[in-house]
Amino acid sequence: MGGTLNANHLMFLGYGALWTIGLSLIGLLGGGIAGFIIALCRISPNRIVRLLSAGYVQLIQGTPLLVIMFLTYFGLPTLGVTVSPLTAASASLTIYVGAYLGEIWRGSIESVPRPQWEAAEGLALSRSQRMMKVILPQAIRIATPPTVGFMVQIIKNTSLASVVGFVELARSGQIINNSLFEPFLIYTIIAGIYFALCYPISRISRRLETRSGPARLSLGTA
Amino acid sequence: MHKTLNAATNAATQSPVVSLKNVHKSFGTLKVLDGVSFEVDRGEVLVLIGRSGSGKSTALRCIDRFERIDSGEIVVCDHRVSDPKLDLRALRQDVGIVFQSYNLFPHLTIEENITLAPCSVKGVSKAEAKEEARRVLAQVGLEDKLHQYPEQLSGGQQQRAAIARSLAMQPKVMLFDEVTSALDPELTGEVLKVIEALAADGMTMVMVTHEMGFARGIANRVVFMHRGKVHETGPAAILTSPATPELAQFVGTGL
Prior knowledge:
The complex is a heterodimer of chains A (about 220) and B (about 260). Chain A is an all-alpha fold. Helices cover about 80% and strands about 0% of the residues of chain A. In chain A, helix 3 packs across helix 4 (about 85-110). The relative contact order of chain A is 0.15. Chain B has a domain at about 15-105 and about 170-255: P-loop containing nucleotide triphosphate hydrolases (Rossmann fold). In chain B, strands 6-7-8-3-9-10 form a 6-stranded mixed β-sheet, sandwiched between helices. A 4-stranded antiparallel β-sheet of chain B has the order 2-1-4-5, covered by helices on one side. In chain B, helix 6 packs parallel to helix 7 (about 185-200). Residues about 1-10 of chain B have low confidence and may be disordered. Chains A and B meet through helix 5, helix 6 and helix 8 of A and helix 3, strand 6, helix 4 and helix 6 of B. Chain B: Belongs to the ABC transporter superfamily. Chain B: One of its GO terms (cellular component) is plasma membrane.
């Protein structure tokens, strides 16, 4: 034990950073699919579907991701389902991200002006045609900046996967620190890597927000 | 055989395109339509006038089932609109509606706006729909705007494009809901000209408008709504010689 920070340590951190990126992408993909379904359920004409999806969103938004991680990793085995750290982390992120993206996207769909729905209805388009051809293309434009912004939250939240023993960036930092005991140095490096991952994305999000300004304006008057 | 067919088509041409019978509609405790009845025959232009809140826009929206009625009967092109089992999409293929705020789809070009419904609802081929788009745009004087986006057009042009979009579905009746209220006088003129041309072509139309001069020129029948009721109805002449003091006061302030 002991020693100084060397290339092997940095390699190990780089490996952890790759897993952070990988887990983020899994969270975005899984949560994106779940979120899309939830967004559609939240605006369903069926009251039961609306209530169930709203309940899901409330439940997840009122539960720390950390607890969801514990539940899937430690809770499921007591029910006879053993899951690997990767599966537990992926499932937890999907559940969690799905609730938030579902709400962001529901808001985007609902902020497409009501008359757009009516115009599409007046042209005899079916509900799914109205959705696919008129509402969603406009909602996607509205949803892009907050969705990209939420990516930053996903990246940072993957650090919680360390509690179930998944070796991503934060956990690999912990492991190195356990042998080197240089917490200030190591966690500064970790913070720097997280920042390097997140900052460009928040910049992109802000750029998209200012660019979508005029587009939203024209939606309002249309 | 031939005779019965003829009789049937005769009966069809004689039955009104739009008919409202004793229609009642409330929003909460507010009674908006209080026993409204009127009919529109083929090729007729019916103009609904009245103060804001008199129920004229609601009456128009009930025809296309954008509002459900509480009681009464509405029949449009043989669709029983008041029937809960109504085939909504069949009704809306026969009825074109144009709104005050144009409501063109901002993410589509004018051509795509127009071809969307014929292609996806009626299954018309892309080429045919584009041909039709060109024809209806020529009809409203916008054939050069085919590939532009709505935001590149003036308000009047957008409204004309919205009319063209409705026409491309070849409706049997057109509804116009205060289509010039968002436009300045010059742009209003170009939209009204398009509507006049449609009337001259024999299109059946129901319109809500505040343009009294225009109403006088185009209406076969005027329905003056007041407090949710048809207060006075008759030919366009009633606008110049109203029978009730309420209409007299309304046209007095309207002119």
